[in-house]
Structure prediction request, 313 residues.
Amino acid sequence: MTISWYSIYISLSPEGNRIFNGYFSVDNTTNVVQSFYETIDNVTNFTNNILLAVDTYSVPYSTGYPLKNNNIFEAGFFTDNGTLIGVTQFSFYDIQVIEIGLHNTVSSSEYLAFISEDDSKPTSDYRYFTTLLAYDPSSACFNEGTNIMCLNKELLEEYIRIENLRKGDLVKSYKHGYRKIELIGKNHMINNKDKFWQCMYKMEKTKENGLIEDLIVTGGHSILVDDLGENKEENEKIFKGTQMIDDKYLLLSAVSKDFKKLENNNLYIYYHFILENDGNNEARYGVWANGILTETPNKNFFMGQKFTLLENK
Prediction:
């Protein structure tokens, strides 16, 4: 059996506070959820699988009360339109989400039903809207601890760790001066060496490459180069063409021979940010990370990703 890992959060409204954060694994053949792990205060206990065995589960349409008080999720499966999907149960105050389809896809919010404690019939009352997002972390992102070249309060250039940056901080850009951070966010992922966009890649510091520290980024993150060289064919196959920022080519870390794939299943915290763009939401900029020129995304792309935005200090 081969599995894929996904991040998940649940909130009671599209913009509401998250009432559950965690990770789950899915059998790639059957699409059945295999395990669920909860993240509390940014720490995930991967020894505590809160998904119970299939034969302990029954869908409580007739009762409307939680199956177990000490378990957030309980597992089972059913077939809908010929597709085997995972089923979970979530209890929150007086409302119970009893069916949520978890697919091996980027996102899913279907197969929702609601039961209140004093009513045995499902209700679609809009007041109890629940959002479930299960997705592949596919952004081009920096690992926690990456140093970004900035202009500090003393108007001196300084490398600052990305997790310490906030909206309004000045970042040095390639050919466009110092620009304020408009948005910065973070998320978690479990490294998956079988999918380059879900895997971290490392460029090690050498005397030749000018790095101040090893650089770790997701496989979908690019450095900026003058020439793609021998990487051109593979790079353009993935990008479906040539990608540039100003006069530099984007070279994916997953393609570059200077990066090595990290073949582990560790939990990583990744970050990214966008710079003020003068009203052009497609604008992208080059920035220096650990001593090498690399990319930032445009605002439209950033807003389509699932980040926890960092508030001002």
The domain at 142-309 is CATH 2.170.16.10 (Endonuclease - Pi-scei; Chain A, domain 1). The chain has two domains: 3-135, 142-309. The chain has two helices and 25 strands. Residues 125 and 273 are 37 Å apart (CA to CA).
